[in-house]
């Protein structure tokens, strides 16, 4: 019997395209055909104007760091084995704000506005500093 894991997505019919794209190294966002704004995480309605005219779009993968926190303790498996890690909120170039992790960066090098680029860890989108 394997221990429960809290880090793996459980795709439903609606979010499956998002996770399938992530498994292929692509980050998808949702774009509203009514007001033109993008959002993330994926929702079936536009959170800005409530239109249902929302479609998938591939994001550029560019973002800047908004805020972050170095996590030293997390009792939910498997995170306990991964501490410390950097939990972060980033602003995607397309506008949406996204909860994620920052990898490949020493904590002292993190700063608000740091340019980031998406990468994928176990088919999940995370971000690393842009070269
Ligand atoms: Zn809208």
From TrEMBL:
InterPro entries named among the record's database cross-references: ChsH2_C, ChsH2_Znr, NA-bd_OB-fold, Thioester_dehydratase-like
Residue ranges annotated for the ChsH2 C-terminal OB-fold domain, each copy included: 56-120
Keywords: DNA-binding
ChsH2 rubredoxin-like zinc ribbon domain: residues covered: 19-54
MF (Gene Ontology): DNA binding
Keyword Transferase: no
Protein name: DNA-binding protein
Protein's organism: Streptomyces filipinensis
Lineage: Bacteria, Bacillati, Actinomycetota, Actinomycetes, Kitasatosporales
């Amino acid at each position: 019997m394997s221990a429960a894991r809290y880090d793996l997505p459980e795709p439903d019919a609606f979010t499956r395209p998002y996770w399938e794209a992530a498994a292929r190294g692509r980050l998808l966002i949702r774009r509203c055909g009514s007001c033109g704004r993008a959002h993330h995480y994926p929702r079936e309605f536009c959170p800005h104007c409530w239109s249902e005219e929302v479609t998938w779009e591939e994001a550029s993968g560019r973002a800047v760091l908004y805020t972050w926190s170095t996590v030293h303790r997390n009792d939910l498996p498997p995170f306990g084995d991964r501490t410390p890690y950097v939990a972060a909120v980033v602003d995607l170039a397309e506008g949406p704000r996204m909860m994620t992790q920052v990898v490949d960066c020493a904590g002292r090098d993190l700063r608000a506005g740091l340019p980031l680029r998406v990468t994928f860890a176990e088919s999940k989108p995370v971000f690393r500093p842009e070269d």
